[in-house]
Amino acid sequence: MKIVVLDGYTENPGDLSWGALETLGELTVYDRTPAGQAAERIVGADAVYTNKTPITAADMDAAPSVRFIGVLATGYNIVDTDAAKARGIPVCNVPTYGTAAVAQFTFALLLELCHHAAHHAAEVQRGQWRARGDFCFWDYPLVELQDKTMGIIGYGRIGQAVGRIAKAFGMRVLAYDAYVSCEESAELDELLSQSDVISLHCPLTPDTRHIINAGSIAKMKPGVMIVNDSRGPLIDESALREALIDGRVYAAAVDVVSKEPIEINNPLFGLPNCIITPHIAWAPKESRQRLMDVAVDNLRKFIEGRPQNVVNP
Fold it and tell me: Which class for 68: exposed (0-12), middle (13-18), buried (19 or more C-beta within 10 A)?
C-alpha cells in the first residue's frame, strides 16, 4: 500500500513519529503541498492524508488508485466528501482528540482577557511596577469570573468540557445547541442577552456561518466578552470590529479567523481589546499524539475491512 501525507508539518513538526503509519505501507510525507499540486502528489497512492490541503473531485479523478482519504483533523470541509462517496472512497476524520486541549485553551484566552497577565508581566520587565512606587499596579481592568454567566454556542464534547470548567470557576452556564438538550439549554436569544461571556464551539455549517453578526451582537449584554477557538467564519469579523470599537463588546479573543493564515487586512488586526492567536488550541503534543494514534487506526481498520470515523457513509 502506498500512503501519502500531503501536509504533515502542523501535525508533526518533528516531535512525533510517523513510524506507526510506516508499518502499514510505503509512506511519503510532505510538510506542505502548494495549491494545485495535490493531484500530482497522490497519483498512484492508495491512501491519502490531509489536514488543510483541499482534495477535490478533479484530484480524485487524476488519482483513481486512491481508496482511502484520512483527515488529520476533526473538520473535513477541505475534502469533497460527496465526490469521494460517489467513487466509493471513505473519508475518515479524527473526532475526539482535542477536547481537553481546546477546552483548556478557551480559558487561557478568557483569563488573558480578564487579567492581561502577559501584558502585566511585560510591564514589570519594563520597570513600570518599580516606577509606580506602590506594592501593586495594573493598567487594565481586572475581571472576576465567579457569578458571571457563560453562554456556550455548540454543546458537544468540547462545549460540555468548557461548561464543566466554567462551573468550577463558579460561573452560571447557558448552552445553545440545535441537536443537544440538557439542563443548561437555552434559546439563542436568551443566551445572547444574558451572557457575560460567549464562547463558540459549534461546527461551521450554512446555519452557523456568521452566527455572530451585527444582529446577534445587538442582542448581547453590553460589555460582553467573546471567545472563538472553533472556526473563524462563525464570526462576521467586520461586525465584531465595529462592536469592539464602540464598546458594545468589551473584548474578544480568537484563535481562528476567516482566512488562515491571517491576512494583513483582517478587520480584527490592530484592536487593543482583541487577542488573536495562531490556531494553536488543538496543538499540545499530547493532543497531536492522540490525533496520530486515531489517524493510523482509521487506516488500519479500513485495511481490515472495518472502516471507522467515516464522515461520508
Answer: buried
Residues 257 and 134 in one domain: yes
Which CATH number does the domain housing residue 28 bear?
3.40.50.720
- The string of DSSP codes covering 246-293 is HTSEEEEEES--SSSSPPTT-TTTT-TTEEE--S-TT--HHHHHHHHH
pLDDT of residue 262: 97
- Domain shared by 31 and 46, yes or no: yes
Residues 208 and 150 occupy one common structural domain = yes
- Type of residue found at 175: A
Residue 296 lies in a domain: yes
**Residue/partner pairs of 170-177 with CB below 8 Å, 24 or more apart:** 170/145, 170/146, 171/145, 171/146, 171/147, 171/197, 172/147, 172/148, 173/149, 174/149, 174/150, 175/151, 176/151, 176/152, 177/153, 177/202
Are 289 and 255 found together in one domain?
no
Query: Within its chain, how far is the Cα of 174 from the centroid?
Result: 21
Q: What count of other Cβ atoms lies within 10 Å of the Cβ of residue 61? A: 11
| Ramachandran class of 210: left when φ > 0, alpha when ψ lies in -120 to 50, beta otherwise | left
Q: Which of 231, 241, 288, 290 is catalytic?
A: 231
β-bridge pairing 149-153 and 68-71: unpaired
List, in order, residues 6 or more apart from 60 with CB less than 8 Å away. Answer: 66, 80, 83, 84, 87, 89
For residue 231, indicate whether it is catalytic.
yes
Instruction: Give helix then strand counts, H and E, for the chain.
Output: 12, 11
pTM of the model: 0.93
Pick the catalytic residue from 144, 260, 263, 286: 260
What tens digit of pLDDT does each residue of 160-205 get?
Answer: 999 999 999 999 999 999 999 999 999 999 999 999 999 999 999 9
Same domain (yes/no): 197, 259:
yes
Determine, yes or no, domain membership for 38.
Answer: yes
Known catalytic membership, residue 260 = yes
> Do 80 and 200 belong together in one domain?
no
